[in-house]
Prior knowledge:
Chain A is mainly β.
Amino acid sequence: QKEVEQNSGPLSVPEGAIASLNCTYSDRVSQSFFWYRQYSGKSPELIMSIYSNGDKEDGRFTAQLNKASQYVSLLIRDSQPSDSATYLCAVNPDNDMRFGAGTRLTVKP
Amino acid sequence: EAQVTQNPRYLITVTGKKLTVTCSQNMNHEYMSWYRQDPGLGLRQIYYSMNVEVTDKGDVPEGYKVSRKEKRNFPLILESPSPNQTSLYFCASSWRGLAGVDTQYFGPGTRLTVL
């Protein structure tokens, strides 16, 4: 069983809509959770980090963490074509880092 | 400018010919890591280092070696490359906070092809 699971997509939303990306993880001791964005051919870059249960908002992005359900999500409000990318969920269970396979998001004008 | 650099960016080699991919960071980060990225599999950690002279295996260490003699450098060594090591490789560095590994800063990637 994969340790970090994401829907591979592709997820397609119209411009201005809310995009919802989901991630589940298997290791209960995980303390740190991250969402990275990766454009095609580029390196991943951090969108959000979250460490406590609940919501964390940063501009158009909201990360949600539920440790009891081992679930972390990313909401993108007012989606823009420039948000089209692959979104990687990452979890830090110990001293290593575990990434999901990524969800490809397309925002259509 | 804070950055992680990797060299080379592109490399085509043949089976069995030893190679080294260099990685350097200028942010004084303790934690450094190597990943490979393959279609449909996402980023998989090869090796990581929590500080100088401290390295540990990630998910897919077979066929790779690393060393951490200086804080800023973390080279990846393929002693005898094979075609299944054809991949996109990323180096990353970060602080380690109270909650563990913090935000990873990634290098630009090295695309390796082993014939």
